[in-house]
UniProtKB/TrEMBL annotation:
Span of domain Polymerase nucleotidyl transferase: 14-36
Pfam families (alphabetical): NTP_transf_2
The organism's place on the tree of life at top rank: Bacteria
Protein source organism: Jutongia huaianensis
Protein name (database record): Nucleotidyltransferase domain-containing protein
Length: 42
């Protein structure tokens, strides 16, 4: 899991990106820095 995102979240992001012709998704905050805690919800 890249960026500590579950497979379900990655599938949903991929589905929505395709559905709405999104070419780029940007993470910010602790997820982008890699300092997030695994128990924090997004």
């Amino acid at each position: 899991m890249k960026y500590d995102l579950s497979d379900r979240i990655l599938r949903e992001l991929s589905f929505l990106a395709h559905k709405y012709s999104v070419t780029k998704i940007v993470l910010f905050g602790s997820r982008a820095r890699g300092t997030n805690w695994s128990y924090v919800k997004i």
